Amino acid sequence: MVQSVFGVWDYVIMGATMVASIVIGVYFRFSGGKQKTNEEYLLADRNMAVFPVAVSLMASFMSAITLLGVSAENYYYGMQFMAINISYGIATPIASRLYLPVFFGLQKTSTYEYLELRFGPNLRMLASLTYTLQMILYNGIVLYAPAIVLEAVTGLDRLISILVVGLACTFYSSLGGMKAVLFTDLLQSFLMFGAVFSVVVFASVQLGGFDKIFMYAKEGGRLDFSNFSFDLTERNTWWSLNIGGLITYLSLYAVNHTQVQRLMTVSTLERSQACLWWSWPVLSVLSVCTCISGLSIFAVYRDCDPLASHAIAASDQLMPYYVVEAMGRVPGLAGLFVAGIFSASLSTISASCNALAAVTLSDYVGRWCKVNDSYIPWLTKLAACGYGLLFLALAFLAEHMGGVLQAAMTIFGAVGGPMFAVFTLGMFTTFANERGTSLALISGMAFTLWMNFGGPRPPPVRLPVSVDGCASNLTLPVADAYNPSDYFYLYRISYLWTSPIGFLWVLLVGSVVSLVWRQQQPWEKAGRQDPDPALFTPPLANRLRCRAEHKTAAQCELLNQADNQE
Questions:
Q1: DSSP states of 325-374 as a string?
Q2: CA distances from 125 to 151, 364, 367, 401 (A)
Q3: Taking the CB of the first residue and of the last residue of the chain, which one, N or C, has fewer CB atoms within 10 A?
Q4: Which residues contact 286 (CB under 8 A, 6 or more apart)?
């Protein structure tokens, strides 16, 4: 790739980003309660405002991998991917009305404490360990990805980049706790928007108008939204984007501990639901802008594709290549872009440090060791710092892992659907038991990982590109023809169907095994006939309360209507 050296303003912007994040961490370490309790350190004393929490929900999983990957997705496969934002709008009321009230009512530190109350300790430990491994692998890559970008843009060694970002993130998240994480997420989100906007604005100026982006994109076949195919092997269709997007969003925003912990930092359920509702438009605006940035870059390189001309080695390098080649001449723009990319990683890593510290103290240390209460806040800070350093070590090893990079990202997607189904079985049924649900989770994750890791796999079919406008005489290589029937069907299924398939697998297997292989439920072991309504989604919880209180059907309907009005 072309390399460029940062100018003074670029370094000023990058340096200011790091310094501001550290200052926020130091401020919250020495203000308020000074992070002396776990309630403040992990949950911000449950008195946060709605807006910073809503923005943090978006920033927690909008990593550098997402920003770079979504722009390349729209460049090479078209803008139909933008339809996934519809599923986010459908999923938001489901998460806020059916799942969030259960977690908020229980007020537990770890999301996986719910699984012990509903099923038993074994499933809690299985889910918690799965989450921990998933987040450790993913965050090592999240830290490594922007280091490659900075090396390409500035020529700065990637190991130095990893150290600067990793240590800064570990410092402020360990020092300032959840309050520092939330407010740095707010700052970093503005920089993420700035990075994406800068690409779109600069490309618009370069092309002679914003409308030219869509004109050239249409000519290149990038604005086709007409794929309603039911074929599971097609990469992006309306069905795969909306169904896959729905399950993926719910697996992250309805039951994932990193997000649920943030939703616990406000004082009431209504405010927590408002955080989810406000997070949706923030997420969608950034997602749409990132999609448009991919089209912008296509419009600029419509006659000389960087990948086909060997200017870049991988599609994810597309956006940084444009920054180097086109935007690097304007002082500060390259620095703004790299600050935005690093901010996307900082927000994800800091969220994970805090979330994994909560899981470690609650699910592991609290279960296996008797710890003096005065030591717990210090142990939590040490755990957060330890995870940050662990991410740092994995990032250093990432360049030597080869295919494991893609493998770890695949694990993150493949685990989400099965885990979401576990919580769904718990909240929406009274018959699902620990034995059946555990077998379903293990088999479901094994199946989805097999789908994603198995091979050989057919090469992706990209939309046409051109090299006619390149300076040197280049010709596009002739694509190797292949017969889809030569590949095993499961290996041809679109990545968007992984989560829905895993979700359905666990629901079906968990239900059948639980009904056939009966087991005492936790409330039965405690000598109670009826389950605790607090463990179930509000509609089912209301029916359980009515049954326990021997109310009539009409009385139950009035109770449900009153709850809905509230």
A1: IIITTSTTHHHHHHHHHHHHHHHHHHHHHHHHHHHIIIIIIHHH----GG
A2: 40, 8, 10, 28
A3: C
A4: 58, 62, 189, 192, 193, 196
Q: Which of 314, 332, 315, 462 is nearest to 323 (CA)?
A: 332
Give yes or no for a contact between 405 and 154, defined as CB atoms under 8 angstroms apart: no
Question: Averaged over 9-34, what is the pLDDT?
Answer: 83
What is the C-alpha to C-alpha distance for residues 120 and 425, in angstroms, rounded to an integer?
14
Neighbours of 545 (CB within 10 A): 16
Nearest one of 130, 108, 128 to 535, comparing CA atoms: 108
Instruction: Note whether 419 and 130 are within 8 A (CB).
Output: yes
pLDDT tens-place string over residues 56-100:
888 877 777 778 888 888 999 999 999 999 999 999 999 999 999
Tell me: the pLDDT tens digits for 352-397?
A: 888 888 888 888 887 777 777 777 778 888 888 888 888 888 887 7
pTM (predicted TM-score): 0.90
Q: What is the CB-side half-sphere exposure of residue 91 using CA atoms within 13 A?
A: 27
Contact call for residues 511 and 256 (beta carbons, < 8 A): no
Is the confidence at residue 562, as pLDDT, over 70?
A: no
Residue 550 pLDDT: 67
* Cα–Cα distance, 448 to 251 (Å, whole number): 15
Q: How far apart are CA 480 and CA 29, in angstroms?
A: 59
What integer is the mean pLDDT of 212-236?
A: 91
Please report where in the chains the tokens 């935007």 appear, as a residue: 327
Domains of the chain: 8-459+487-535 (1.20.1730.10)
The single-letter DSSP state of residue 110 is: S
